[in-house]
Design goal:
Blueprint lengths: L7 E3 L4 E3 L50 H23 L5 E2 L6 E2 L20 H12 L2 H12 L28 H22 L1 E2 L2 E5 H18 L2 H9 L10 H15 L2 H23 L7 E4 L14
Antiparallel strand pairs: 1-2, 3-4, 5-6, 6-7
Helix pairs in contact: 1-3, 1-8, 2-4, 4-5, 5-8, 6-7
Amino acid sequence: MPSHDSRAFSSGAGTVDAPASGRLRNADRALPPASGGTPATGTPPGAHQGRGHREKLGETDRTDRWWLVPALQALGLAVLIGYANVAAFLGADHYHFVEGGRHYLSPFYSPYIKPSWLPSWVSPALLILIFPLGFRTTCYYYRKAYYRAFFADPTACAVGEPKRPYAGEASFPFILQNIHRYLIYLAIPLLFFLWWDVILAFTINGAPAIGVGSLAIFASTFSLTLYTFSCHSLRHLIGGRLDCFSCVAGGGPRLKAWSWVSVLNGRHMAFAWWSLFFVCLADFYVRMCSMGVIQDPILVSFANLFNVPEKVFGP
């Protein structure tokens, strides 16, 4: 019969050697196995919360510029989100540029919906933005960014943080973050409208053409597509919850799709920032054209291929 020292706790993932008697300090002894036969970790709950948890807010022995990233995140979010709110709430007069045969629509107003019952003082963008805004606000990366930048929870690794116990996102209002997995079903259909806007932006007076505004609209939609399809929720939906791709219907294609989304997911942070920047840039460019502040130049036109007079392709 094996001795006590050679016994092992059995688990679903493998085996864990039982601690040898008399070889551990009292503080390090394993706790009794939890209910269900799972071995304990040997560490009392809350014994190792990290140094930053016990220091005053902002205290640290770090000598690097740990504050730089949270500061840049706060600045970037304040400027871009601030601009987006101004454009959506107050910018309904210059959301569309249709002069010179062009058709540039601000991504904040796409698809454009303005029912007769909507009061004149309410921007039609608010009927649409609630869905992409909710998707972006509850995004796993953005939570990390604004939790650190605005709530200092945590500010950075090994840096003192507010003295409030972290209880997850199980109470109001943070429990609302869990709707992110459902908002992906609304975010993807909106991309079809945005890509239709790209087609319209590359069509001037019935002929294909490329203007600076065309490129701005394309950059906005392309970056939004990368951001949406790199989402953690989409990755989980495609195959992240599966233990065996070959055991389910369509496992091969799902594995391939999951692999591609996983590649995009590794760059989700970059896509989050670039998409926010290009959406604001596209809206700003459309507004400047609509207000007559700038002239939209045509870079390439294909009027000759479609027998469209060149004179309509002016600035």
